[in-house]
């Protein structure tokens, strides 16, 4: 592992935006144990970054604030980036050259914002470009699903509604951008543990009126009525989530909520200036925690 390199040192780079669950409703459970979810998902301009370049042999390297935490998993072969590379290579239908992949890990590990899934999706996008592949959309979706239920969403990295286990997605081309502060107490939360603590698995689904909300204010009003069903059980497992949420709430955001299965929480602010001021205040209060100001990526109208 070479922690001196950065993704920008490579011939081709691909962003891996953080995935934010603006809402997550647990609506049921399949016979195979998978939970059925309705999710309103957006992606941020802040995230991990991957670099790619042709190499004499396959190689993988890490940098970034959270890179050292992934080193052990990578050496053990438990790395979604490498799994994505291998699955795409199998599906290519022709010989593909060796590649050096570099992951600049800027997102906390096991934090409920899709870091690993985003990295896998960015690997697929980057290698498609590097290897000049043209595979059918269904083939790419199949590969993505083999890597994890969140990977197809991250492959799109656009605002969307996801249902089922996450495989049924509908893009929201008119979805606006929001200014956010992300926070994480740097404590990993086990997703299976959170689901096990759910008191109810058949909650009301995510419903919109016959017409989708239009513009920021209508979407904000809608988001306020939604929820994350995983937040109460996650708070019971990790006390830091309640503390974190309270700190963000003290900065007077429009909405405060946990993303995914935690422990990342976010606050939506009126504009980037307010979000930047809030993030600075939070950094001063808890310099040992992770706080990041960012914006979500708007839909592609």
From TrEMBL:
<keyword id="KW-0808">Transferase</keyword>
<dbReference type="GO" id="GO:0016114">
    <property type="term" value="P:terpenoid biosynthetic process"/>
</dbReference>
<protein>
    <recommendedName>
        <fullName>4-diphosphocytidyl-2-C-methyl-D-erythritol kinase</fullName>
        <ecNumber>2.7.1.148</ecNumber>
    </recommendedName>
</protein>
<dbReference type="Pfam" id="PF00288">
    <property type="entry name" value="GHMP_kinases_N"/>
</dbReference>
<keyword id="KW-0414">Isoprene biosynthesis</keyword>
<feature type="domain" description="GHMP kinase N-terminal">
    <location>
        <begin position="79"/>
        <end position="156"/>
    </location>
</feature>
<comment type="function">
    <text>Catalyzes the phosphorylation of the position 2 hydroxy group of 4-diphosphocytidyl-2C-methyl-D-erythritol.</text>
</comment>
<feature type="binding site">
    <location>
        <begin position="108"/>
        <end position="118"/>
    </location>
    <ligand>
        <name>ATP</name>
    </ligand>
</feature>
<feature type="active site">
    <location>
        <position position="150"/>
    </location>
</feature>
<dbReference type="InterPro" id="IPR006204">
    <property type="entry name" value="GHMP_kinase_N_dom"/>
</dbReference>
<comment type="pathway">
    <text>Isoprenoid biosynthesis; isopentenyl diphosphate biosynthesis via DXP pathway; isopentenyl diphosphate from 1-deoxy-D-xylulose 5-phosphate: step 3/6.</text>
</comment>
<dbReference type="InterPro" id="IPR020568">
    <property type="entry name" value="Ribosomal_Su5_D2-typ_SF"/>
</dbReference>
<dbReference type="InterPro" id="IPR013750">
    <property type="entry name" value="GHMP_kinase_C_dom"/>
</dbReference>
<dbReference type="GO" id="GO:0050515">
    <property type="term" value="F:4-(cytidine 5'-diphospho)-2-C-methyl-D-erythritol kinase activity"/>
</dbReference>
<dbReference type="GO" id="GO:0019288">
    <property type="term" value="P:isopentenyl diphosphate biosynthetic process, methylerythritol 4-phosphate pathway"/>
</dbReference>
<keyword id="KW-0067">ATP-binding</keyword>
<dbReference type="InterPro" id="IPR036554">
    <property type="entry name" value="GHMP_kinase_C_sf"/>
</dbReference>
<keyword id="KW-0547">Nucleotide-binding</keyword>
<comment type="similarity">
    <text>Belongs to the GHMP kinase family. IspE subfamily.</text>
</comment>
<feature type="domain" description="GHMP kinase C-terminal">
    <location>
        <begin position="228"/>
        <end position="284"/>
    </location>
</feature>
<dbReference type="GO" id="GO:0005524">
    <property type="term" value="F:ATP binding"/>
</dbReference>
<dbReference type="InterPro" id="IPR014721">
    <property type="entry name" value="Ribsml_uS5_D2-typ_fold_subgr"/>
</dbReference>
<dbReference type="Pfam" id="PF08544">
    <property type="entry name" value="GHMP_kinases_C"/>
</dbReference>
<keyword id="KW-0418">Kinase</keyword>
<dbReference type="InterPro" id="IPR004424">
    <property type="entry name" value="IspE"/>
</dbReference>
<feature type="active site">
    <location>
        <position position="19"/>
    </location>
</feature>
